Amino acid sequence: MRLKSVLISQYKNLKNFTLTFEGDSFIDIFVGKNGSGKSNFLEALIEIFDHVYGFTASGVGPGFEYEIAWDIGGKTTTLRWHGGQMFINGVVRQQLGKTPMPVNIIVYYSGQNDTVAALIRRYRDTYRRSVRKANVAESPRFIGIGPDYKTLLLALMLMLPEASQAREFLRIKLGIEATGGTTRLALRRPTVAHRTRYFDPLDNTQLFWGVKGIARTFLDQLMLCIVGGFTPASLYDRATDTYELGIDVIKFREVFAALPPVEVFCEFNALRALNMIADISIPVRLAANAEVSSRAFSDGQFQSVYLFAISELFKDRECITLLDEPDAFLHPEWQFDFLHQTLAISEQGARTNHILMSSHSASTIAAKVECRIRQIEFIGGRTEAREKGRGELIKSLSAGLITFSEKEAALSIDRVLKNTTQPVLFTEGISDVIILRTAWDCTFPGQDCPFEIEQAFDCAFLRNLMKRQSLYDGNQGRKFFALFDFDGAYQDWSQLGDLIEPDIEKCLTVKRRNCEGYAMLLPVPADLSIRNQVWNANANRTFEGESRLSIELLLKDTPGIDQHFAVDVNDRAGWIKFNGDKLRFAAEVVPQIPPQHLIVFKPIFDFVLSRI
After folding, report:
1. Most buried of the four, 9, 139, 204, 463, by CB within 10 Å?
2. Which parts of the sequence belong to the ATPase AAA-type core domain (predicted)?
3. C-alpha distances in angstroms, 258 versus 153, 220, 249, 313, 433?
4. What is the CATH number of domain 2-103+317-397?
């Protein structure tokens, strides 16, 4: 399965946007600055295939005209939607009939794109209705896999036969020495069951809240995988209105031996469509005999699982896989390995699965792997995708603030630590570093900064970095600080220790137990005009993870830079957001701001200085 070409007449900022896919490379990467259109391209593809799969002659279409061509088994098919009519290989058609089409469109979304998530939710709701009516005979065409799939995918991959290449890869990647013999599956009342109705678990027709069709058939098969004496009713906990199934892994492999792994996944996916899976986990033993649940792995570790799991499960189907920033939360070294892991997919998977991926990661792009990388940018009044060298791409994406040659290794925190001996203040990104270094020079003119200020790529990686015991064990005597934006990153910050500074004006700060690790949130000045985006005066507390204060917003009250801020039209409260290029703002605007307006960052420096 290979896409050959795509033409999109008008979708958001894509106007007469054309792409061709030459050669037989099975992965194409698209990079670009925020707002350039790379995510819009993936969204438009989802809309196109949603229209194709549900095509009727009387349908209104996706709201734009398109032409798309693909190759399946050496045969090229071209679909064109124009003037309210569907043309297949140049001929007007009233129905698609036996037109060769991708079996599945698999969409991975990391949570960064609300529009992609909404498009997948729309299709998932349609599938849920078909499962509810017990009239679904096959897996859905669209399969959206987001962060909520992590435990299911990992448990399923570890339940595959031990000879499975994918299972062995994940076992090594995650440091798993062995897996337990029983997988725990907790089930909750499905969306189709009335919330207050009583279902008698002793009545076979009412077992599992009376679900029918493929969901009930699959649950009956899972009960065959339970070892030991039990009755269906004994699986039910009346107090919590849940069922718990202890699935013996060896028995599971026997029962589903004749069913391809992708079909097993789709059976589980039907339960998910009904919102029945409350939890699934398998015990694993790590190095040094540490026994944990499969749920214990970090978000970054799970992130590395998704692509390989998807490609392995669907390797026997003609598919298109759309990956929206799948490397967003990976450690830079894992980002560097990401494409190499992709190419470890079986030869069969490479023939049948065409992967299109968007990325922001310098480390991913720098990896020496054969693939096409194109930058989506706005040129001469239109959006275009241009192929460029890796070094040029890195320089362009960072507005010249980062240079990265193909000979250089991945961006690495370890390199920073080896080349310095001072305490380190880590931030969420490079623009934060530039702003803080400028603020230091203005706040403490003529004084060398007695600590390093370095980026840690994003809030998730920053959280995982500060949690890593090896950071402290391998750097005895050094002190480490982390600075988080006061927004959704609150959830990352709150995991890093005990509260030692409760004053939001001085930076809410937590300390890691028994380590010199400190995590701070941005200070919230008493006179900041948008203080209400953090402080809930009615409740006399912060909005925690619902707050909205990025480092740029601390400068909101600076005269003469209003054009860099705007009301967020998607926010019901009409809160203010930063509106522009963060790197350019940090490098070009902040150095021109009068020093008295940069004093807002002094509480950050004061805390670090007080500890070192």
Report:
1. 463
2. 291-365
3. 20, 16, 15, 15, 55
4. 3.40.50.300
Q: How many CB atoms lie within 10 A of CB 237?
A: 12
Collapsing DSSP states into helix, strand and coil, what is residue 137?
A: coil
Q: How many whole angstroms separate alpha carbon 373 and alpha carbon 360?
A: 12
Q: Which residues are bridge partners to 486 per DSSP?
A: 549
> Residue 583: its pLDDT value, please?
81
Q: At what angle do helices 459-467 and 299-313 cross, to 10 degrees?
A: 120
Nearest to 490 by CA among 530, 515, 519: 519
In sequence order, which residues have a C-beta less than 8 Å from that of residue 97 and are 6 or more positions away?
A: none
Q: Supply the DSSP symbol for 486.
A: B
pLDDT (0 to 100) of residue 591: 93
Place of tokens 């799991």: 309
Residue 111, sorted as left (phi over 0), alpha (psi -120 to 50) or beta, turns out to be left
* DSSP letters for 275-337: T-EEEEE-EEEEGGG-EEEGGGS-HHHHHHHHHHHHHHHTTTS-EEEEEESTTTTS-HHHHHH
**Contact 256/281 with Cβ under 8 angstroms?**
no
Give the H or E element holding residue 350.
Answer: helix 347-352
Residue 86, amino acid: M
Amino acid letter, 200: D
Tokens, residue 166: 């994918």
- Where b means 16+ CB within 10 Å and e means fewer, 122-141 reads ebbeebbebbbeeebeebbb
* Residue at 599: amino acid letter: I
* Cβ neighbour number for residue 487 with a 10 Å cutoff: 21
Which residue reads 């494409």 in tokens? Answer: 339
Cα–Cα distance list, 295 to 287, 299, 477 (Å): 17, 10, 33
Helix/strand/coil for 555? helix
Q: How many helices (H) and strands (E) does the chain have?
A: 20, 30
Q: Is the pLDDT of residue 330 over 80?
A: no
Angle at 611 between CA 609 and CA 612, to 5 degrees: 70
Among candidates 244, 241, 134, 133, which has minimal Cα distance to 197? 241
Tokens of 585: 């703002």
pTM for this model (two decimals): 0.61
Q: What is the domain partition of the chain in residue ranges?
A: 2-103+317-397, 148-293, 413-611
Could you tell me the pLDDT band of residue 131, with boundaries at 50, 70 and 90? Answer: low
